[in-house]
Inverse folding.
């Protein structure tokens, strides 16, 4: 029943956000400095119940985030948390009024420079007692705090920010903040006014409050100019030593080894999800895969069968890959994709 590959299981407990002078730790400390009177939780276990991760947060039964295509299940009732929001209810129930939760989160997702099956988030929650504030005041306070935080994180940097309306089942209204990153808008955080039924379920009837969730890698990538999310896991001293001052420095890439692109095309079976393919590639190639892109989709006019063509980019961050090594990886992908996903190679 578990769909957690060994490669992902091996990363549980690394706690990069707690590793001194790791860029994610530097970012975490700066966020803590901004929310000085908030209680900090940074060692809550990532194994949570489906109730914590979804049910108690109003996530509908048929919501995509619950699907095993998107979430790592330990068993039918437990998952690796997909977000730090999984701890909102227990901490509200304990009576906390201002808190931050830092932690590793897990999602089955695409493979590119900003997506990795493990990433880190910080959850922030602030509540007010009954009758103290309106929703408008809560939103005002939320935006002020997050814009203040962004400004203090990105001091002296011209940073374009925009707010967009969003949907989260556990907040209403909900918003996302995006920043401009290398010609793209990068979603930095989600937030909103905590749903009243959640507060009531936690014994906080009539109270009001906000919550936000920030991706730490995205902040760190923007702040330190780290070009690839895999680097956070690197134990190469050429990476980690650059952060020894604890200051915000501009990362100097030490490697741009040549990329090795390989294409693979296959007919997909009826119940097929691209995330299963991405997970399979990640499992075989580990951190040697940089990007996987669906480059062509095609439906056969007579048989109606669907074909997918993916371009896999293999590239190591630390060294040049051997041709034979890449060919072996690609051959293994070709074999496993037939064996485990039931596709037919073209
Ligand atoms: N948990 C949301 C996510 O992971 C972020 C969020 C947190 C949104 C708190 C609203 C409130 O995308």
């Amino acid at each position: 029943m578990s769909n957690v590959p060994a490669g992902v299981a091996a990363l549980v407990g690394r706690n990069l956000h707690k590793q001194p002078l790791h860029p994610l730790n530097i970012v975490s400390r700066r966020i803590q400095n901004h929310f000085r009177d908030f209680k900090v939780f940074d060692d809550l276990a990532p194994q949570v119940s489906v109730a914590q991760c979804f049910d108690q947060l109003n996530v509908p039964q048929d919501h995509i985030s619950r699907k095993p295509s998107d979430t790592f299940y330990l068993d039918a009732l437990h998952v690796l948390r997909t977000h730090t929001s999984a701890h909102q209810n227990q901490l509200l129930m304990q009576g906390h009024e201002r808190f931050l939760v830092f932690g590793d989160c897990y999602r089955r997702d695409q493979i590119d420079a900003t997506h990795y099956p493990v990433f880190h988030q910080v959850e922030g929650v602030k509540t007010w007692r009954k009758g103290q504030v309106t929703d408008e005041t809560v939103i005002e306070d939320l935006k002020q705090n997050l814009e203040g935080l962004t400004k203090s994180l990105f001091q002296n940097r011209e940073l374009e920010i925009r707010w967009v309306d969003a949907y989260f089942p556990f907040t209403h209204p909900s918003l996302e903040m995006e920043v401009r990153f290398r010609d793209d808008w990068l979603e930095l955080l989600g937030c909103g006014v905590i749903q009243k039924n959640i507060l009531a379920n936690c014994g906080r009837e009539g109270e009001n409050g906000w919550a936000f969730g920030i991706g730490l890698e995205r902040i760190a990538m923007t702040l330190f100019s780290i070009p690839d999310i895999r680097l956070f896991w690197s134990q190469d001293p050429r990476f980690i030593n650059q952060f020894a001052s604890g200051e915000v420095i501009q990362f100097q890439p030490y490697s741009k080894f040549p990329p090795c692109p390989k294409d693979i095309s296959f007919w997909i079976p009826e119940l097929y999800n691209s995330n299963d393919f991405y997970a399979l590639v990640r499992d075989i190639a580990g951190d040697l895969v940089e990007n996987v892109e669906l480059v062509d989709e095609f439906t056969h006019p007579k048989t109606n069968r669907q074909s997918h063509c993916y371009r896999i980019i293999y590239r190591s961050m630390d060294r040049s890959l051997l041709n034979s090594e890449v060919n072996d990886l690609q051959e293994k992908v070709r074999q496993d994709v037939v064996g485990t996903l039931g596709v037919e190679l073209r």
Observations:
- The two ends are 31 Å apart (CA to CA).
- The chain has two domains: 6-243, 260-345.
